[in-house]
Design brief:
This protein is mainly α.
C-alpha cells in the first residue's frame, strides 16, 4: 500500500472529478442517438411491464388445462397455441417473464456484491490479501460457470432458487477482476493519498473516493452479464435442474415442446423467441451504457 509522501491537500477533490464524465443532459442526448440502446430499453420496459402485470394481461392461468384443446395451433382463443396438456402457451410465456426478471436482478445483484467487495479489498490493500483473493478468483474463473453450477445443484438439489444461487456464486469473478484493476489504479491518486494523510479511515476512502469510480464499469458489466445469466438458467431448466413443473419457466417450456417440434412447433418457438429478444435487449442496452459511461467517449462535442 502506497504511503503518503506529499503534503496533504486539506480539501481532497471528489473521485468523480478525477476523470471527465458526461453530464446528464449530454448522456441523455447520446442515448437518444443510440438506436439499438433505445430498442433494448423499450424491450426491457416491455418485459418488466409484462412481468408486473402478468395476472392482469395473461388470458389464462399458467396451469389451467383444457384437455379438449391439446396441442392446438395458434388461434384467436390461443394466439400462441396450446401444449400437450391444453395449457395456453401465451399465458405461460407471460407468466414466465417473472422468473426471467428474478434471475436478471437477483443473480446480478449477488454477483455485484461478491465481486465488487472482493475486488475492492484486493485492489486497495494488496499484499497477501490480494494474493489470496486473486487466487480464489482465478480458480473460480478457470471453470465454466455452468459446470460449477451443475456441481452445486447436484449437491443442494434442483429448483429455480437453487439455480440462481449456484449461478451467482460461480460467476462473480469478472466483477472482482475489473474492480481490482480499477482500484489498483486509483489507490495511488493524489486525492486518495491526501485523504489517507489527513486521517480518513480505509472504509471511508473506499466509499467516498473509490467506489464512485467503479460504479460505471461494473454497471455496464452487470447489464452485459444479464443475458448470460438468463441463458444459463434457461439451459439448466431445459435439462430439468431449474424450475420444476408446472412452473412456467421459458427453459422448461422449451423442454416440454422439444418432442413436438414437428407437429406442434409453437410450443418451443414462442418461448425461444422471447429468450432471444430478452438477451438482445440487455446486450443492446449494455452496449449503449458502455458508450455513454466510458470516459473516453464522454468528450464534449
Amino acid at each position: 500500500m502506497t504511503n503518503a509522501t506529499a503534503k496533504p491537500d486539506p480539501d481532497p477533490p471528489s473521485a468523480l472529478q478525477d476523470v471527465p464524465a458526461a453530464p446528464p443532459n449530454r448522456a441523455w442526448r447520446k442515448f437518444r442517438n443510440h438506436i439499438p440502446g433505445q430498442i433494448g430499453a423499450l424491450l426491457i420496459l416491455l418485459l418488466v411491464t409484462t412481468a408486473l402485470l402478468a395476472p392482469v394481461i395473461a388470458p389464462y392461468g399458467f396451469d389451467v388445462q383444457e384437455l379438449t384443446r391439446i396441442n392446438q395451433p395458434p388461434s384467436a382463443d390461443h394466439p400462441f397455441g396450446t401444449d400437450r396438456y391444453g395449457r395456453d402457451v401465451l399465458s405461460r410465456v407471460i407468466w414466465g417473464s417473472q422468473s426471467v426478471l428474478k434471475v436478471a436482478f437477483v443473480v446480478v445483484a449477488i454477483q455485484l456484491a461478491i465481486g465488487t467487495t472482493l475486488g475492492m479489498v484486493a485492489g486497495y490493500f494488496g499484499g497477501w490479501i490480494d494474493t489470496i483473493i486473486s487466487a480464489v478468483t482465478d480458480m473460480v474463473w478457470a471453470f465454466p460457470p455452468l459446470v460449477l453450477a451443475l456441481g452445486i445443484i447436484a449437491a443442494i438439489g434442483p429448483g429455480l432458487t437453487n439455480v440462481i444461487v449456484a449461478i451467482a456464486i460461480t460467476s462473480w469473478a469478472p466483477f472482482a477482476r475489473i474492480t481490482r484493476a480499477k482500484v489498483m489504479s486509483l489507490r495511488s491518486r493524489d486525492y486518495v493519498i491526501a485523504a489517507r494523510a489527513i486521517g480518513e479511515t480505509d472504509p471511508s476512502i473506499l466509499g467516498r473516493y473509490i467506489l464512485p469510480m467503479i460504479v460505471g464499469p461494473n454497471l455496464v458489466l452487470a447489464t452485459l452479464t444479464v443475458p448470460a445469466a438468463i441463458l444459463t438458467t434457461t439451459a439448466l431448466s431445459f435439462i430439468g435442474l431449474g424450475a420444476q413443473p408446472p412452473s412456467p419457466d421459458w427453459g422448461a417450456i422449451l423442454n416440454e415442446g422439444r418432442q413436438f417440434l414437428r407437429n406442434a412447433w409453437w410450443i418451443s418457438t414462442f418461448p425461444g423467441v422471447a429468450i432471444l429478444l430478452t438477451a438482445l435487449a440487455f446486450n443492446f442496452l449494455g452496449d449503449a451504457m458502455r458508450d455513454i459511461l466510458d470516459p473516453q467517449q464522454s468528450v464534449i462535442r
